[in-house]
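User: Hey, my collaborator sent me this sequence without any context and asked if I could get a structure. I don't really work with proteins. Can you help?
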Amino acid sequence: MALYDVPAPAKINLFLHVTGRRDDGYHSLETVFRFISLCDTLNFDLRSDGRIVREGAGHLPGLAQQDDLVVRAARALQAATGTPLGAQIAYEKRIPAGGGLGGGSSDAATTLIALNRLWQTGLNRDELMALARPLGADVPVFIYGRPAFARGIGDVFSPVELPERAYLVVRPPQQVPTAGVFSSPDLTRNSPCVKITVFADWQKINAPDNGFFKNGLFGRNDLEPVVFADYPRVGQAAQWLSEQRLSARMSGSGACFFVEFVTLEQAAVYQQQIVSKISSRENDVVVVQDAWACPGLIDHPLRYWISS
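Assistant: No problem. I've predicted the 3D structure and written it out in structure-token form, which is a compact way to encode the shape of the chain:
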């Protein structure tokens, strides 16, 4: 038995406000998560000997097996269910590491969902989310499986309806480790809380005009000033995108940016323009490394693999 070409989609944070710091050192957040079509893919072959064997590590060749979130997720499911089964796991990385797109978290969530099916362990969504939380703050939303208004440390969810949109996703030539951003003394930690209804109303009134949005994006990403100061190549990419008259926002703790469009065709036009400029760059100065045109997803592609 096997499951092949199982998707693990990237996420973007449509906004990200840091509203406080908790006694346990974690930060209180408000954000809206949306999945996009940029995906890693994973293959799972059933093993009867109970072993979890990872084949390679995509674009992370130095990642030890015991530190891989995919392996940790598989072992967490084994421990929780007592299954004697194992799995051979191979995956192909397309979501860039250190980009704020949740690639490792998504891979871990897809592993929990897929092995729950392959092993027939029968955990429901709440039970899988409980396993996901110790793996990382972003892992639960991929189990939740739909666009979400998130509070707490980003793991208390309310469903949110989002219009069909497409995104230009841009990757600077620099990775950003999340922990360092949140530990910065310069990080804003007192943004006022917003209501989900305020965000919902914004979506309705922010009508597009010729493929752009007159009022820009809702809210802000409070992590941007810290990242731009500490990671200058990310800041350079933000400046370059502004010079292209693109209203871009950083996703999560960076380094990737997104620009919202009404249609995929509009996003693809700008993606091709950026790729052309990358190819013809002068003086070997790399401001942008990659760009993708991606539709926003209505739901996680594996949402209905789990019983609620």
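In plain terms: The mean pLDDT is 92. You can pass these tokens on to your collaborator as they are.
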